[in-house]
Specification:
Blueprint (H helix, E strand, L loop, with lengths): L4 E5 L10 E3 L25 E4 L1 E6 L2 E5 L7 E7 L4 E2 L9 E2 L5 E17 L7 E6 L5 E4 L4 E19 L5 H4 L3 E2 L4 H9 L3 E3 L4
This protein binds fe (ii) ion.
């Protein structure tokens, strides 16, 4: 499928905030016990969200605080249709992005987007996460294979990323085919994904 993605980098959001993390697991793999949230293993154990906060409401207007204290960069990523990013390779194998110097904080501001994540360091390495405007920002730590697909109407995501020293946009967005990474292929083939449903 043709990729229809537009990057509008460096749209900085300046908001002061309180943030909270939320763990949302609605279906766990069989034969494994439910994980208990451990704030000290934040980037090692599971998928996490950075929730927004409603700080003001007037008639027909809601003010959301979407600050991410860790963020030092913001990208706006627009899918104009049912795009898959990155798209499959030429023979149909799934491709993924993996960042070495960036954590993603992907927040849907319009539409719906499904993320597929694989992280070999997580207790459950394979996750599928559906996001909408209520979900908060999905945190994708560096060294996590990830790809996303929009619904038919497309979607808009703001990525309030944390970039580390050495970040180079030319190196961080090189699609990697599962066909070329045996360990990744093995996870996709044999692991049952943890499914995360839409936020409330
Ligand atoms: Fe990313």
């Amino acid at each position: 499928m043709k990729e229809t993605v537009t990057y509008l980098p460096n749209l900085m959001l300046v908001l002061e905030s309180e943030n909270e993390n939320r763990l949302l697991i609605t279906r766990k793999p069989q034969k494994k016990s439910r994980q208990k949230f451990d704030p000290y293993s934040f980037f090692m154990s599971d998928v996490q969200f950075k929730k927004h906060r409603v700080f003001r409401e007037t008639e027909d207007v809601i003010f959301y605080d979407i600050s991410v204290d860790e963020s030092n960069s913001s990208d706006l990523v627009v899918h104009t249709g049912a795009a898959i990013s990155p798209p499959n390779d030429l023979v149909g194998a799934k491709q993924f992005y993996i960042h070495g110097c960036q954590d993603d904080y992907n927040r849907v501001v319009s539409g719906e987007r499904q993320f597929e994540l694989v992280n070999f360091d997580w207790k459950y390495p394979y996750h599928i996460v559906r996001l909408n405007v209520h979900s908060g920002a999905l945190i994708i730590p560096k060294n996590t294979y990830h790809r996303s697909q929009s619904g038919e109407e497309g979607s808009i995501v703001i990525n309030q990323a944390k970039r580390y020293e050495g970040f180079d946009s030319k190196l961080e967005f090189i699609p990697v085919s599962a066909a070329e990474v045996p360990e990744l292929y093995k996870v996709l083939l044999h692991e049952k994904p943890v499914i995360h449903t839409l936020g409330e």
